[in-house]
């Protein structure tokens, strides 16, 4: 499998998952929105890295790697690399807490509508930028 094909596959998966966020949001599943958005952003950013020929690391926050290789992406993505890296870091910080919580942290009580909206907006942005970077390959690999 080529980097381009795998990148397109990641984008297709991220795009599909993006469709569930409004349903979770509408049902006040704000912590679930944050968790799902983290996975969407991770897939989108790892797809961008693969498209640029960069081996995607096996950890959840790849924002630093994205920044490190910013020059490998189209000019259209330049303005958003820092925003995507910051989003990736925020979502990574909330990955486990939003899903499992902790003794003193109940996810269904702690995440707000605003948190969920930030996660949705960020996931949409990441998928949009990844779509620009990865291009038409995603359309070929995204159809089942």
Write the layout of secondary structure elements.
Elements lengths: L2 H16 L2 H6 L3 H22 L11 H6 L6 H26 L6 H4 L2 H22 L2 H6 L2
Helix pairs in contact: 1-3, 1-7, 3-5, 3-7, 5-7
Structure description:
By secondary structure, this protein is mostly helical. It has eight helices and no strands. The protein has helices spanning 3-18, 21-26, 30-51, 63-68, 75-100, 107-110, 113-134, 137-142. α1 runs antiparallel to α3 and α5 (75-100) packs across α7 (113-134). The longest helix is centred in the middle third of the chain and has 26 residues, at 75-100. The chain is elongated. The two termini are 17 Å apart. 40% of the residues are buried. The model is unreliable at 137-144 (pLDDT under 50).
Globular, elongated, flat, extended or rod-shaped: what is the shape?
elongated
Number of helices: 8
Structural class label: mainly alpha
What is the residue-averaged pLDDT?
Answer: 90
Question: For the CA atoms, what is the radius of gyration?
Answer: 15 Å
Q: What is the succession of H and E elements?
A: HHHHHHHH
Low-confidence stretches: 137-144
What is the CA–CA distance across the termini?
Answer: 17 Å
Q: Report the major sheet.
A: none
Extended strand count: 0
Helix content: over 70%
Strand coverage percent: under 5%
